[in-house]
From TrEMBL:
SUPFAM superfamilies: TPR-like. The lineage of its organism: Bacteria, Bacteria division TA06. SMART domains: TPR. PROSITE patterns: TPR. This is Uncharacterized protein. It comes from the Bacteria. Gene3D superfamilies: Tetratricopeptide repeat domain (1.25.40.10). The keyword Disulfide bond does not apply. Coiled coil: none annotated.
Length: 345
Protein backbone atom coordinates (compact mmCIF):
# COMPACT_ATOMS: atom_id res chain seq x y z
CA UNK A 1 0.00 0.00 0.00
CA UNK A 2 2.77 2.42 0.97
CA UNK A 3 4.70 1.57 -2.21
CA UNK A 4 1.66 2.31 -4.36
CA UNK A 5 1.18 5.64 -2.64
CA UNK A 6 4.86 6.45 -3.20
CA UNK A 7 4.55 5.71 -6.92
CA UNK A 8 1.45 7.87 -7.29
CA UNK A 9 3.05 10.77 -5.44
CA UNK A 10 6.22 10.52 -7.56
CA UNK A 11 4.16 10.66 -10.75
CA UNK A 12 2.32 13.69 -9.42
CA UNK A 13 5.58 15.45 -8.53
CA UNK A 14 6.81 14.98 -12.11
CA UNK A 15 3.64 16.56 -13.49
CA UNK A 16 3.70 19.44 -11.00
CA UNK A 17 7.33 20.25 -11.81
CA UNK A 18 6.60 20.17 -15.53
CA UNK A 19 3.69 22.59 -15.17
CA UNK A 20 5.48 24.98 -12.82
CA UNK A 21 3.39 24.15 -9.73
CA UNK A 22 6.49 24.16 -7.57
CA UNK A 23 4.90 24.58 -4.15
CA UNK A 24 2.62 21.59 -4.72
CA UNK A 25 5.54 19.57 -6.08
CA UNK A 26 7.57 20.36 -2.97
CA UNK A 27 4.71 19.38 -0.66
CA UNK A 28 4.31 16.03 -2.42
CA UNK A 29 8.08 15.46 -2.31
CA UNK A 30 8.02 16.06 1.44
CA UNK A 31 5.27 13.44 1.76
CA UNK A 32 7.37 11.02 -0.27
CA UNK A 33 10.34 11.59 2.02
CA UNK A 34 8.20 10.96 5.11
CA UNK A 35 6.76 7.76 3.64
CA UNK A 36 10.17 6.55 2.51
CA UNK A 37 11.60 7.16 5.97
CA UNK A 38 8.73 5.21 7.52
CA UNK A 39 9.46 2.15 5.39
CA UNK A 40 13.23 2.57 5.62
CA UNK A 41 13.85 3.17 1.92
CA UNK A 42 16.89 5.45 1.87
CA UNK A 43 17.02 5.48 -1.92
CA UNK A 44 13.53 6.99 -2.13
CA UNK A 45 14.44 9.46 0.63
CA UNK A 46 17.35 10.66 -1.50
CA UNK A 47 15.18 10.88 -4.63
CA UNK A 48 12.66 12.98 -2.68
CA UNK A 49 15.42 15.31 -1.45
CA UNK A 50 16.57 15.82 -5.04
CA UNK A 51 13.00 16.57 -6.17
CA UNK A 52 12.59 19.04 -3.31
CA UNK A 53 15.87 20.64 -4.30
CA UNK A 54 14.63 20.96 -7.87
CA UNK A 55 11.51 22.84 -6.76
CA UNK A 56 13.52 25.27 -4.62
CA UNK A 57 15.99 25.79 -7.48
CA UNK A 58 13.16 26.53 -9.90
CA UNK A 59 11.89 29.24 -7.55
CA UNK A 60 15.34 30.80 -7.21
CA UNK A 61 16.03 29.56 -3.65
CA UNK A 62 19.47 28.23 -4.51
CA UNK A 63 20.86 27.89 -0.97
CA UNK A 64 18.05 25.58 0.16
CA UNK A 65 18.33 23.61 -3.09
CA UNK A 66 22.06 23.17 -2.50
CA UNK A 67 21.52 21.94 1.07
CA UNK A 68 18.95 19.37 -0.09
CA UNK A 69 21.19 18.12 -2.91
CA UNK A 70 24.06 17.74 -0.45
CA UNK A 71 21.84 15.74 1.93
CA UNK A 72 20.89 13.47 -0.97
CA UNK A 73 24.55 13.12 -1.95
CA UNK A 74 25.41 11.95 1.56
CA UNK A 75 22.71 9.26 1.40
CA UNK A 76 23.76 8.06 -2.07
CA UNK A 77 27.35 7.68 -0.87
CA UNK A 78 26.27 5.96 2.33
CA UNK A 79 24.25 3.31 0.48
CA UNK A 80 26.79 3.04 -2.35
CA UNK A 81 24.48 4.19 -5.14
CA UNK A 82 26.91 5.52 -7.78
CA UNK A 83 24.15 6.58 -10.14
CA UNK A 84 22.48 8.67 -7.48
CA UNK A 85 25.84 10.11 -6.45
CA UNK A 86 26.47 11.23 -10.03
CA UNK A 87 22.98 12.72 -10.24
CA UNK A 88 23.44 14.76 -7.05
CA UNK A 89 26.91 15.95 -8.05
CA UNK A 90 25.42 17.16 -11.34
CA UNK A 91 22.59 18.94 -9.51
CA UNK A 92 25.06 20.65 -7.16
CA UNK A 93 27.06 21.72 -10.19
CA UNK A 94 23.96 23.30 -11.72
CA UNK A 95 23.28 25.28 -8.53
CA UNK A 96 26.84 26.61 -8.48
CA UNK A 97 26.40 27.61 -12.12
CA UNK A 98 23.22 29.50 -11.23
CA UNK A 99 25.16 31.28 -8.49
CA UNK A 100 27.83 32.29 -11.04
CA UNK A 101 30.35 30.05 -9.24
CA UNK A 102 31.70 28.64 -12.46
CA UNK A 103 34.84 26.91 -11.17
CA UNK A 104 32.84 25.06 -8.52
CA UNK A 105 30.22 24.15 -11.11
CA UNK A 106 32.86 22.65 -13.41
CA UNK A 107 34.46 20.76 -10.53
CA UNK A 108 31.20 19.07 -9.49
CA UNK A 109 30.20 18.36 -13.08
CA UNK A 110 33.60 16.80 -13.80
CA UNK A 111 33.13 14.54 -10.74
CA UNK A 112 29.63 13.65 -11.92
CA UNK A 113 30.78 12.88 -15.45
CA UNK A 114 33.59 10.63 -14.22
CA UNK A 115 31.05 8.50 -12.34
CA UNK A 116 28.55 8.55 -15.20
CA UNK A 117 31.18 7.30 -17.64
CA UNK A 118 32.32 4.60 -15.20
CA UNK A 119 28.79 3.19 -14.80
CA UNK A 120 27.72 3.77 -18.41
CA UNK A 121 25.08 6.38 -17.62
CA UNK A 122 25.00 7.97 -21.07
CA UNK A 123 21.92 10.07 -20.39
CA UNK A 124 23.49 11.51 -17.24
CA UNK A 125 26.75 12.08 -19.09
CA UNK A 126 24.94 13.98 -21.83
CA UNK A 127 23.16 16.26 -19.36
CA UNK A 128 26.41 16.93 -17.51
CA UNK A 129 28.23 17.73 -20.75
CA UNK A 130 25.41 20.12 -21.55
CA UNK A 131 25.82 21.96 -18.24
CA UNK A 132 29.58 22.17 -18.77
CA UNK A 133 28.84 23.69 -22.17
CA UNK A 134 26.53 26.21 -20.56
CA UNK A 135 29.23 27.20 -18.05
CA UNK A 136 31.71 27.83 -20.86
CA UNK A 137 29.15 29.89 -22.79
CA UNK A 138 28.43 31.98 -19.70
CA UNK A 139 32.14 32.76 -19.47
CA UNK A 140 32.10 33.87 -23.10
CA UNK A 141 33.93 30.79 -24.38
CA UNK A 142 31.41 29.89 -27.07
CA UNK A 143 33.78 27.54 -28.92
CA UNK A 144 34.11 25.32 -25.84
CA UNK A 145 30.40 25.61 -25.20
CA UNK A 146 29.57 24.60 -28.76
CA UNK A 147 31.98 21.64 -28.58
CA UNK A 148 30.28 20.28 -25.45
CA UNK A 149 26.79 20.81 -26.89
CA UNK A 150 27.75 18.98 -30.09
CA UNK A 151 29.11 16.09 -28.02
CA UNK A 152 25.83 16.09 -26.10
CA UNK A 153 23.91 16.00 -29.39
CA UNK A 154 26.02 13.07 -30.62
CA UNK A 155 25.26 11.02 -27.48
CA UNK A 156 21.53 11.68 -27.61
CA UNK A 157 21.42 10.67 -31.27
CA UNK A 158 23.41 7.49 -30.56
CA UNK A 159 21.01 6.38 -27.83
CA UNK A 160 17.93 7.49 -29.78
CA UNK A 161 16.80 10.06 -27.23
CA UNK A 162 14.73 12.47 -29.34
CA UNK A 163 13.88 14.69 -26.41
CA UNK A 164 17.55 15.08 -25.51
CA UNK A 165 18.47 15.61 -29.16
CA UNK A 166 15.97 18.44 -29.41
CA UNK A 167 17.36 20.03 -26.24
CA UNK A 168 20.91 19.86 -27.59
CA UNK A 169 19.83 21.42 -30.89
CA UNK A 170 18.18 24.18 -28.90
CA UNK A 171 21.40 24.85 -26.98
CA UNK A 172 23.46 24.90 -30.17
CA UNK A 173 20.96 27.38 -31.57
CA UNK A 174 21.41 29.49 -28.44
CA UNK A 175 25.20 29.62 -28.96
CA UNK A 176 24.72 30.87 -32.51
CA UNK A 177 22.18 33.37 -31.18
CA UNK A 178 24.64 34.80 -28.65
CA UNK A 179 27.33 35.00 -31.33
CA UNK A 180 24.97 37.02 -33.47
CA UNK A 181 24.60 34.28 -36.10
CA UNK A 182 20.82 34.48 -36.18
CA UNK A 183 20.40 32.36 -39.32
CA UNK A 184 22.14 29.35 -37.73
CA UNK A 185 20.22 29.98 -34.51
CA UNK A 186 16.95 29.76 -36.45
CA UNK A 187 18.04 26.62 -38.32
CA UNK A 188 18.90 24.69 -35.14
CA UNK A 189 15.94 25.92 -33.10
CA UNK A 190 13.51 25.10 -35.91
CA UNK A 191 14.94 21.54 -36.06
CA UNK A 192 14.44 21.31 -32.30
CA UNK A 193 10.88 22.57 -32.66
CA UNK A 194 10.10 19.88 -35.26
CA UNK A 195 11.36 17.17 -32.90
CA UNK A 196 9.40 18.52 -29.94
CA UNK A 197 6.23 18.49 -32.03
CA UNK A 198 6.95 15.01 -33.42
CA UNK A 199 7.24 13.46 -29.95
CA UNK A 200 4.44 15.54 -28.45
CA UNK A 201 6.69 17.37 -26.00
CA UNK A 202 4.43 20.36 -25.45
CA UNK A 203 6.46 21.96 -22.67
CA UNK A 204 9.66 22.08 -24.70
CA UNK A 205 7.75 23.05 -27.82
CA UNK A 206 6.76 26.15 -25.88
CA UNK A 207 10.35 26.69 -24.72
CA UNK A 208 11.77 26.46 -28.22
CA UNK A 209 9.03 28.72 -29.56
CA UNK A 210 10.18 31.22 -26.94
CA UNK A 211 13.77 30.93 -28.17
CA UNK A 212 12.69 31.45 -31.77
CA UNK A 213 10.72 34.48 -30.64
CA UNK A 214 13.85 35.87 -28.97
CA UNK A 215 15.88 35.44 -32.16
CA UNK A 216 13.24 37.28 -34.18
CA UNK A 217 12.99 39.95 -31.48
CA UNK A 218 16.70 40.74 -31.71
CA UNK A 219 16.51 40.79 -35.50
CA UNK A 220 13.85 43.46 -35.15
CA UNK A 221 11.15 41.20 -36.62
CA UNK A 222 8.55 42.08 -33.99
CA UNK A 223 5.57 40.50 -35.77
CA UNK A 224 7.41 37.17 -36.02
CA UNK A 225 8.58 37.48 -32.41
CA UNK A 226 5.01 38.02 -31.25
CA UNK A 227 3.84 35.03 -33.30
CA UNK A 228 6.30 32.71 -31.57
CA UNK A 229 5.69 34.21 -28.13
CA UNK A 230 1.93 33.86 -28.61
CA UNK A 231 2.41 30.21 -29.60
CA UNK A 232 4.45 29.59 -26.45
CA UNK A 233 1.85 31.36 -24.31
CA UNK A 234 -1.01 29.33 -25.77
CA UNK A 235 0.76 26.02 -25.11
CA UNK A 236 1.81 27.01 -21.59
CA UNK A 237 -1.77 27.90 -20.73
CA UNK A 238 -3.00 24.60 -22.15
CA UNK A 239 -0.56 22.52 -20.09
CA UNK A 240 -0.92 24.65 -16.96
CA UNK A 241 2.68 25.92 -16.92
CA UNK A 242 2.15 29.07 -14.87
CA UNK A 243 5.84 29.90 -14.68
CA UNK A 244 6.08 29.70 -18.46
CA UNK A 245 2.93 31.79 -18.87
CA UNK A 246 4.46 34.54 -16.72
CA UNK A 247 7.64 34.50 -18.80
CA UNK A 248 5.75 34.66 -22.09
CA UNK A 249 3.57 37.52 -20.89
CA UNK A 250 6.77 39.33 -19.96
CA UNK A 251 8.28 38.69 -23.40
CA UNK A 252 5.15 39.97 -25.15
CA UNK A 253 5.22 43.02 -22.89
CA UNK A 254 8.82 43.73 -23.97
CA UNK A 255 7.85 43.68 -27.65
CA UNK A 256 5.02 46.14 -27.05
CA UNK A 257 7.40 48.23 -24.94
CA UNK A 258 9.91 48.45 -27.80
CA UNK A 259 7.11 49.36 -30.19
CA UNK A 260 6.19 52.25 -27.91
CA UNK A 261 2.84 50.67 -27.08
CA UNK A 262 3.10 51.46 -23.39
CA UNK A 263 -0.47 50.66 -22.34
CA UNK A 264 -0.28 47.21 -23.92
CA UNK A 265 3.16 46.65 -22.44
CA UNK A 266 1.97 47.49 -18.92
CA UNK A 267 -1.06 45.27 -19.30
CA UNK A 268 1.11 42.24 -20.10
CA UNK A 269 3.71 43.08 -17.45
CA UNK A 270 1.07 43.35 -14.73
CA UNK A 271 -0.44 39.99 -15.71
CA UNK A 272 3.05 38.49 -15.52
CA UNK A 273 3.73 40.14 -12.16
CA UNK A 274 0.52 38.74 -10.68
CA UNK A 275 1.50 35.19 -11.63
CA UNK A 276 5.07 35.50 -10.40
CA UNK A 277 3.73 36.63 -7.03
CA UNK A 278 1.19 33.81 -6.89
CA UNK A 279 3.79 31.11 -7.58
CA UNK A 280 6.40 32.73 -5.34
CA UNK A 281 9.01 33.39 -8.04
CA UNK A 282 10.89 36.32 -6.53
CA UNK A 283 13.44 36.51 -9.36
CA UNK A 284 10.66 36.90 -11.93
CA UNK A 285 8.80 39.32 -9.68
CA UNK A 286 11.83 41.58 -9.27
CA UNK A 287 12.61 41.60 -12.99
CA UNK A 288 9.02 42.40 -13.93
CA UNK A 289 8.83 45.22 -11.40
CA UNK A 290 11.93 46.64 -13.06
CA UNK A 291 10.32 46.36 -16.49
CA UNK A 292 7.19 48.17 -15.27
CA UNK A 293 9.38 50.89 -13.76
CA UNK A 294 11.15 51.43 -17.09
CA UNK A 295 7.85 51.84 -18.96
CA UNK A 296 6.68 54.48 -16.49
CA UNK A 297 10.07 56.21 -16.69
CA UNK A 298 9.90 56.41 -20.49
CA UNK A 299 6.37 57.81 -20.26
CA UNK A 300 7.58 60.46 -17.85
CA UNK A 301 5.52 59.02 -14.97
CA UNK A 302 8.32 59.39 -12.45
CA UNK A 303 6.38 58.68 -9.23
CA UNK A 304 5.27 55.16 -10.24
CA UNK A 305 8.64 54.60 -11.91
CA UNK A 306 10.39 55.30 -8.60
CA UNK A 307 7.92 53.20 -6.62
CA UNK A 308 8.33 50.12 -8.83
CA UNK A 309 12.11 50.56 -8.99
CA UNK A 310 12.30 50.62 -5.19
CA UNK A 311 10.15 47.49 -4.95
CA UNK A 312 12.42 45.77 -7.45
CA UNK A 313 15.55 46.89 -5.57
CA UNK A 314 14.20 45.56 -2.27
CA UNK A 315 13.64 42.08 -3.71
CA UNK A 316 16.94 42.01 -5.64
CA UNK A 317 18.77 42.71 -2.39
CA UNK A 318 16.78 40.11 -0.48
CA UNK A 319 17.57 37.37 -3.01
CA UNK A 320 21.19 38.47 -3.45
CA UNK A 321 21.00 39.31 -7.16
CA UNK A 322 23.78 41.89 -7.50
CA UNK A 323 23.23 42.46 -11.22
CA UNK A 324 19.51 43.07 -10.69
CA UNK A 325 20.33 45.35 -7.77
CA UNK A 326 22.65 47.38 -10.00
CA UNK A 327 19.95 47.72 -12.69
CA UNK A 328 17.41 48.93 -10.13
CA UNK A 329 19.87 51.45 -8.68
CA UNK A 330 20.64 52.78 -12.17
CA UNK A 331 16.93 53.26 -12.83
CA UNK A 332 16.45 55.05 -9.50
CA UNK A 333 19.43 57.30 -10.23
CA UNK A 334 18.02 58.17 -13.67
CA UNK A 335 14.66 59.08 -12.12
CA UNK A 336 16.28 61.40 -9.55
CA UNK A 337 18.38 62.97 -12.31
CA UNK A 338 15.21 63.72 -14.30
CA UNK A 339 13.86 65.46 -11.22
CA UNK A 340 17.13 67.39 -10.87
CA UNK A 341 17.48 65.74 -7.46
CA UNK A 342 21.21 65.19 -7.90
CA UNK A 343 21.94 64.48 -4.25
CA UNK A 344 19.48 61.55 -4.20
CA UNK A 345 20.81 60.31 -7.55
Amino acid sequence: MQRTKLSLLKARVAVKQLTGSYDEAREDSERIRELAQQIGDQQEVAHALVDMGNTFKSKGNLQTALELYELALGIWREIGDRGGEGKSLYSIGVVHFNRDEYELSLRYCDEAMKIQREIGDRVGEAFTLSNIGTVHCSRGDYEQGLRHYEETLRIFRQIGDKRGEAGALNNIGAVHYFRGDYEQALVHCEKALELHRAIGDRANEAGTSTNLGAVQYFRGNYDEALRYYDTALRIQRQIGDRHGVAGSLNNIGKVHHDLGEYDGSLRYYHQSLEIYREIGDRVGEAGTLGNIARVHYERGDLDPALRYSQLSLKIEREIGNRLGEADALCCIAAIHTCRADYRAA
